[in-house]
Specification:
Radius of gyration: 18 Å
Order of helices and strands: HEEEEHEEEH
Number of helices: 3
Distance between the termini: 45 Å
Structural class: alpha+beta
Strand order of the largest sheet: 4-1-6-5
């Protein structure tokens, strides 16, 4: 049926209106030269404030979205080295794209969303890092 629709604009409108919608998050497992993992302290999380850098994509390439999010929240400049994992979740409906990379410059500046940062050795996590992120980080690091 799709191939018989009269115009591309109409086809795209029909697809947009009839398909499920989801968000795309970009996350990073960023390490320094010692192999320590960058974690950020989120101001909007009360019980589990520490977490991986990341955020929601805008109309951009995923790697560019992660670099932008890190810069906006910390003023760090990141270099993304590759996609490590894609995860689908239902609440909210989203796809998480998890990348590997490192910080290549910048000076930390707190923002409305991020109050602090730390590099920590894998497995020696700060209190307040969600269990699912601990597992995800270790899984990503084990792949390399």
């Amino acid at each position: 049926m799709y191939k018989y629709m009269p115009s591309k604009k109409f086809k795209n409108w029909v697809v947009y209106r009839t398909q499920h919608k989801f968000m795309i998050a970009v996350l990073g497992v960023l390490t320094n030269e010692k192999g320590q993992v960058l974690l950020l302290k989120h101001t909007y999380r009360r019980d589990e404030p520490w977490g991986m850098p990341g955020g929601w994509m805008e109309l951009e390439q995923p790697e560019a979205g992660l670099v932008r999010e890190i810069y906006e929240e910390t003023r760090f400049r990141a270099r993304i080295t590759g996609l490590a994992k894609a995860i689908y979740d239902k609440k909210p409906a989203r796809v998480d794209l998890v990348f590997r990379g490192r910080i290549v410059g910048g000076t930390f500046t707190p923002s409305v969303e991020i109050s602090d940062y730390m590099y920590c050795d894998p497995g020696h996590w700060p209190q307040g890092l969600p269990a699912h992120q601990k597992k995800l980080i270790l899984d990503i690091l084990a792949r390399n």
